[in-house]
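note to self — DONT lose this again. spent like an hour looking for the file last time. sequence + predicted structure for the chain T wanted, 192 res
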Amino acid sequence: MTPMIGRRLREIALAAGLAFSATALVAVGPAAAQQTLNVAVVDVQKVMEETSAAKSLQEQLGRVRAGFRDGIAKDEEALRKEQEDLQKQRSLLSPEAFQKRREDFERKFGEMQKAVAERRRSFDETSARAQVEIDRVFLQILAALAEERSYTLVLPRQTTILVDNSLDVTDEVIQRMNKAVPRLDLPKAQSK
């Protein structure tokens, strides 16, 4: 799991916990006190690691990341070779010709840095959009399960200290997500 996804999972777990806690606090009143609390817990991290849709997104992101790294390595190698050639020719070129070649090299280096930054921005944006999509599917499945079983409180397992395993609906959420959305395609990067 990438650090970004791990951080995102913690954010979802925290947001879900806060949202459910806030709902529970608001619901506490004379009428709510008479209502039976029907609780479930879900391991958000496990869902995000084990669903086929999440796995397919991770595989696609891995291929994009590898292509990104390979492209950068290729560009860096080409520039390194050009720099070496420039240094070798320094004594053979006039000062003006060397200065012009050096400026050309610096321009190419600057363009490469911009291209790398753009690729990184595009990858980060694609990764974030993929995470939003998997979050959307997860919340839809979880909301449907909660309504079906009349859960009044669903907590992320990551925020609970002790829990009876009978309250854990993680495996069922995973099964439902795998059935409903077996695969998600990586969103296309938006061009700027």
